Amino acid sequence: MDFAFDEEDEELRSQAREWLAEHLTGPYEEAVGLGGPGSEHEGVEVRRSWERELGRAGWIGQGWETQEGDAYGNRRLSLTGQVVWAEEYAAARAPARVGHIGENLLAPTLIAYGSPEQRARFLPGIARGEELWCQGYSEPGAGSDLAGIRTTAVADAADGLYRVTGQKIWTSLAQDADWCFVLARTEAGSARHCGLSFLLVRMDQPGRVDVRPIRQMSGTSEFNEVFFDGAVAAEVVGGEGNGWSVAMGLLALERGVSTLVQQIGFAAELERVVRAYVDIGAGDPVLRERLVRQWAELRTMRWNALRTLGAAGADPGAPSVAKLLWGGWHRRLGELAVEVRGAVATAGPGHWSQGTPYELGLDEEQRLFLFTRADTIYGGSDEIQRNIIAERVLGLPKESR
Predict the structure, then answer these.
(1) Last-in-domain residue among 219, 241, 263
(2) N or C: which end of the chain has fewer CB within 10 A?
(3) How many CA atoms lie within 13 A of 210 on its CB side?
(4) Where in the sequence is the domain holding 224, given as residue range(s)?
(5) pLDDT score recorded for residue 229
């Protein structure tokens, strides 16, 4: 595919730029640059309001391909049009999306695997920016090895509803979510990939759903433990027992146009590190070479992302390649951020002589370094991504267990 922007795309670019400039004012102007990985605690309420602003203007759900057309209020943009909007959104430093999981993970999954009734029930709320979602996959002892989950869901013969019991961990944004899509074991005695179902669970169930934030070494708490104690789930996506197929389908949809937004954010972080290098005198040739390499690798990631989008899902290893590329790149950038600054990067804002505590993780470079230590683990560890590429793309023997 020739991934080039035409006149229609450039007209959309002007419209998007104008809309963002007009609406990132007042309370939303204060939210510019807020949020994102490592900073999800910033401006949650104003970003939630901003989500509804996007919904009213039809900027949510642009890539949803449904027979219902525009019934859910989303603009029907081409793939290049979606990229244009993503680029302009990131360039304007608009608030990080609190509705990302619903729009980019659950919605495409419902379109691919859900019933017409499920799409009619849940897509409009996401498109309006009114209902936020989180993902209930990982568990203690079942992170990268997702097939080892132990959370159970038992159907109640009296009302047909499922009762979900178990624990999920590393659940991003669970403290603010209205709903959670949960992978649970619905067949007693089943093991590994068998007997799993993909359930939709309302988070507002006092006494049945308990969310406990996990404090990270960066000082923030965007990840959570979630405990389900007989939580009610009325919806099963894709049919009972088909949860593994639905869950894997969702992961394949996870890294699309949003990858380009992520890369624009990476470029801004890299620019900040380069500026710090210049400010201190730009004297170390080794650091200079590493910064140039970071720039070149980021350009390569962009073209790889565009190539992948143009291939329309033809490459089964593309999501794993993308994760390997950006995870390692971002982690190396975090290391560079503190190396460029030198010893001062290890100092916190507090000082014993002022009676204030010594802390880390409160300035941007420290937070970047600390949070990126996890980039090669969360969202699928590097080891898992390499196994996927080896087994599903190269046809190599499966790893022995």
Answers:
(1) 241
(2) C
(3) 10
(4) 134-241
(5) 94
